[in-house]
Amino acid sequence: MTTAFDPVINRRHTGSVKWDFMAEKLGLDGDDLLPMWVSDYDFQCPPTVLQALHQRVEHGVFGYAERDAAYYQAIIDWYRTQHHVEIEKDWITTVHGILPGLAVLLEVLTESGDKVVMQTPGYGAFRKITELNKRVLLENPLLEHAGTYTLDLAQLEMCFQQGAKVLLFCNPHNPTGKAWSTDDIFAVAQLCHQYQVWLFSDEIWGDLNMPGHQCHSALSLPSAITQRLIVATASSKTFGLSSLRISNLMIPNAELKQQFIRRLDAHGMDVFNSLSMCAATAAYQTAADWLAELKQYLQHNVDLLADYLKQHLPQLHFTAPEAGYLAWIDCRALAISDHELEQKLVHAGLVASMGIGFGKQGSGFIRLNLGCPQETLKKALHMLSNALA
């Protein structure tokens, strides 16, 4: 049966980073290349969001705009119904994307030369933002056994003992797709509380739990250990709104929130896009059922990949993600270099995210974006088989 996610939409020549800028970003050129790298999906955003945007555009006036009561209430209601967490309006601080928010936050919480911790393999932009802001990155490698990842709390404590000021905690984790348990999150938060380390919990993937799994927000932690907590959220990954550039940092600490807002003002980041606010509000208000259907479709893609690898590429190892639409595939049994692995894929026409880009712990892995119609995924799997079988 055809679903709303089956149509293949041509994204070429739309300014898409994923489809149109492989030459500039990756040094790869060719209209025959199939991009499965950037973590945005190839589906239209929810119809109710498109309708709200059309109505806003037809109004035709785009003067300065602010977040209204509906914007805040939509976020509060979403957290209550989707995550079973009660959040307060005063915690919500809007930013032009999580990474700009993190950069400003580092200005508030740290000074040049201070240490910042992240788990690896990990989101490369965390490293970039940290180092470009002249902070020192400490790696806390995840423990990996048979495709399952766990936190190394002993090593994390050693990082804190070295004087780290901030932990960048990807929850759920990119690129592995691990949805951390409540025990995991509590243990991390307790260590942060013990060593007076700020906990930045990036929960941008938190709405995309796969069926049978649950994502747990750090906002559900006891209030006694949330005064050094910042939770980053956005509608972008969930509803396909990445280029609209609107996110929220949840900051329970009122003093920190005021310091953060002052730094946003210092950078002139105090005006928001009316279309972005419209889209985010409509998504949270109206698209829960659409999201449930999307997650079922993504689960079918995960199953399709798993079955294909088992049948055609058994030397590759894959553990299904618990959240998100990114497949973290272990190619180490091929015993080839990362460069050779990439060249084989590109020669077959497939562009993946190379695991080495997520730190040395990612060497020998690739990350494939499963956020696409099944027709596209089947093409990618055929290319993968041609490259590596």
Automatic annotation (TrEMBL):
Signal sequence region: none
Keywords of this entry: Aminotransferase, Lyase, Pyridoxal phosphate, Transferase
Keyword Lyase: yes
GO molecular function, one term: transaminase activity
Domain Aminotransferase class I/classII large: 35-382
Stored Pfam families: Aminotran_1_2 (PF00155)
Keyword Lyase: yes
Coiled-coil stretches: none
CDD domains: AAT_like
Cofactor: pyridoxal 5'-phosphate
Family from the record: Belongs to the class-II pyridoxal-phosphate-dependent aminotransferase family. MalY/PatB cystathionine beta-lyase subfamily.
NCBIfam families named in the record: C_S_lyase_PatB
Protein name: cysteine-S-conjugate beta-lyase
Species this protein is from: Shewanella yunxiaonensis
